Amino acid sequence: MAVTLAGHLYRKVNKSEDFIPMDVRHLEIAKPAIAKGHDAKEEQLLRITATAERPLRLVKFAYNSIHQDGSDGEFHASCEVQYGDAKSLLADWSRFDYLFRSRIDVLAQGANAGKYKKISRGQAYESFSSLVQYGKKYQGMKEIILDSKNFEASSLIEFQATDNDGDFDANPYWIDNIAHLSGFVLNGSDAVDSKKQVYISHGWESLQMVRPLSGSRSYRNHVRMHQGPGKTMVGDVYVFDGDDMVALAVGVKFQAIPRSLLNKILPPINGAAHHPESQAPPSMKGMVGHPDVKTSKPEKQPAPTSKKISHKASTSVSPPQNGNRIITGFMSIVSEELGLESSELHDGAAFADVGMDSLMSLTVTGRLREECEIDVPTSFFVDKPTIGEAKFAILAQDSGNLEGGVLTESASTESASTGSAATTDATSGDQMIRNTSIGTNLAKYTAEDITEKLLSTVSEEIGIEQSQLLEMSDFVDMGVDSLMSLSITGRIREELDLDLPTTFFVDHPSVGEARIAISALTGTSTSEDATPSSYSENSSPDDTDTLPTIHSSNDPNLADWVMEDRGNDLTLRPATSILLSGSPKTSSKTLFLLPDGSGSATSFSLLPSISPDVCVYALNCPFMKTPADFMNGIDRVSGQYLAEIKRRQPQGPYYLGGWSAGGVIAYQVSYKLLELGEKTERLFLVDSPCPINLEPLPSSLLHFIDSLGLLGTRGTSPDWLIPHFQATMKNLASFTPRPMDLVDAPKTLIILARDGLLKDAKDQIFPRSSGEGKSVKWLLDSRRGIGTYGWEKLIGDENIIVMNVPGNHFSVIREPDVERVASLLRRGLSV
C-alpha cells in the first residue's frame, strides 16, 4: 500500500510513468490489522495517511483503523518511503552481493551432500499447516535449503500469483514471497520449539527494490537470522534474479512470544480463542490479515481477568516499605521476558533498546497484573520509556500518589480535599515523572547518599567552596553548563553505577528538585533543609574521586609517547573521558569516541544508548579550554588520547570511533595501537574526511557555521570553541597520515551524511570560490553517491563498508538523525 501510494505521488508530481526505485524504511507494526469474516455486519475501513513535502524525496505513512463515524481508531503501523537511485543502490550492493551468492552456492552443495535439508513447496507449507494455512497465491517458495542450526536458508521463488490476480502497482503476493523465507527459518525450523513459542514479524529497517518484480521470472534469496536485543531475531534478506541482486530487506525483525499469548495479539475471527496446539503466527507482516490465510480451528478458552485498583490522591512522594519488593518483582518479570540478566538492565536503559516492543509489553503488563496486582495500560512502556521512569511510576502508584491515575486505565482517582496545595503537588509530581529518567541500585544507596555525592561532585567540578554551594538554589547559577553537566553525570554514572541522563540538570534545575527526584526513585526521603555531612565547613573532597593529573601506563612505549619532552608540559596534560552509557562492570565491549574539532565530549551527548552490552566513553581534548597550547600535532595528541584509553582498558581488542576530525584522531590512535602490537577490532568514522592533503577551514566558514547555531550543543558556543576548531585544523593541515598494513587494518564502517550544509542553510548562502579546499566542499556539498573518499588509501578498500545516513555533517550527531547513527554503530558492534 505504501509503495502504491508513493508511486502515485511520484508520477503525479513528476509526470513520469517510469519505475522509480523505492526504499520502504522503518516499518514498525504496532498492532496487526485483522480482516473480519465475510459475514461481518459492518464495513471494515483502514486509513493510510501519506505526508510529503516539496521537493518530493520522502513520504511518511501511518495506518489506522477507522470508526464508523470516520474518526481514527486503532493505530496499526508506520513507515517511510524514500525515492532512490538504481545506479547508486547497485553500486552499493556490488560491494557485498557476491558474498551472499556464494552462501547460496554453499547451501546448495551442502544439500546435495546431505548436510542441509532440501524442502519442497508442498513439504514447506505442510509443515506450517499446524500454525498457518496459506492460500495458494502465497505459496511462492518452490524449494528451500535450510540450515536449522545456524538459522540460515535460501529458497527458489516462483510466484503462484499472476498479473491477473489483481490490479496492483506493487503486487503484495510477490513482495511477501521474496522475504517470506525469514519467517520460515524461525517458525518452520526444528531448532525452535513451536509448541512453546512462536515468532511474529515486527517490521524492518529498510526494503529496497531496484526494478519491478515479474510473475514470469524466478528468483533466489538468502537469509541468516541472528539474535537481536532481548527475545528478538534479526536478519537481512538478499534477493537475486540470476546473478543480479534486485532487492534487499534490511533488519527484518521477529519477536518471540509464548504461544499462550497469541490470542491477545491475534484474536481469531468471532472472538474464539486458539487452541494451544493450533495457533497461527504469521511469518511475515500481515499474514493473518490476508483473506487467503486462515488460522487453524480454534477452541474456546476463558478470558483472562485483571484486578482494578482504586487510588486516593496523596502529596507524599515516599513509597511505603514494600516498594522495593514490588520493584524486585517488576524487574524479575522484565528480566525473564527479555532474556537478560538484571545487571544488564540499568535504569537509564530505554525499553526499546533492550527489545521491549509492543508485543513484548503485552506479556509483561499481563504478568504485572496477575503476579504483582499492578494494573498498568498496554501503553505503559511508551509512556515510561526507560527502566528508571517505569520504576518511579510503579513506586508512585504503590504509594497512592496521584501519578497512579496516569499509570492505569482502569483506576479511579478520588481527589483529596486539600485545596490549592494538592493541585500544586500534583502538577509538580506529574512534571517530575515525565522528566525523570534516572536510575540507581535501590538496595545499595539511600537518597541522602546519592544527593550528597551529586552535590559533592558539582562542588569539585565547578571549583567553589562546599559551604557556598548550598547558598545557591539553581544549578545554572552555580555554573553548571552543558559541558559541566556531561562531566558530572559521567562521574556519577561511573562512581555510583547510577545512570543519570545528561539532561538531569535541565529536567531538575534546582537542588530541591534534584533531591525530590532522587528521593522518589529510591523510595527513601531526604530533608530538603538538611545539610549533608560531607558539606560541613571543615570537610574536603575525597581525593579518590578526582581524576589523576597524569595517567600512567605499564606499556613502556606508550609511556614514551606521553612523557617525552619533559621540558614541555604540554605532553603531560592528560586527556579525560566521560562514561556516556553502559556499565564497565557488565559490558563485554567498550567503545571509545574521539572528539571533533571542538575537542569536547559534549558532541556525543545526544547519542542514544548503543546496547546494554556496550560501554561508551567520550573523550575530551587535553587542550579543550586552552586551544592556544594545542600545537603538538595530531600524532602526539593521539598519544595522549591513547594513554586515557589504556587507562580505561589496559588490553585490547579495542573499538574506536570519531565524528568529523575525531575520526582522523581515531584512525591515528588505531595506528599507534598497531605499533604496540594491539588490535583495533572495529573503527567507526562518522562523516570524517580523509586526512590526506586536508586543508584548514577558513575562519569565515567557521563563523558562518557558528551563526547557524551549529557549533554549540544548545545553539551557543563558549569563547574557546572556535579557537579550538582553528587549532585542530592547523594540526590536521600539518599531519601526514601513514597507511596501515592492510592485513592488520581494522574493519571500518564509514557513516556518511547525505546532505551538504547549505541544503539546510535556507537563504544564508556562504560565498563559494573555485579554488576552495576539499574540507570546505566536505561540509557544504551533498554526497552524490557512496564512496570511500580516500580512506581506502589508508585502510584498504577491502576493510571498509560505507553507509549513508540522512542529514548533514552537523545534524548526524543531533536528533533525530543521531538515532540512525546509533543504529549503525549497534549493528557494527554486534558483528
From TrEMBL:
User: Where are the annotated segments for Disordered?
Assistant: 272-322, 408-427, 523-557
Q: Source organism's superkingdom? A: Eukaryota
Q: Where is the composition biased (Basic and acidic residues)?
A: 291-300
Residue ranges constituting the PKS/mFAS DH domain according to the UniProt record: 1-263
Q: Region C-terminal hotdog fold: list its residue ranges.
A: 115-263
UniProt keyword terms in alphabetical order: Phosphopantetheine, Phosphoprotein, Transferase
Region annotation (N-terminal hotdog fold) ranges = 1-88
Polar residues: bias regions: 312-322, 523-539, 546-556
Report what the protein is called: Uncharacterized protein
Q: Which organism is it from?
A: Lepraria finkii
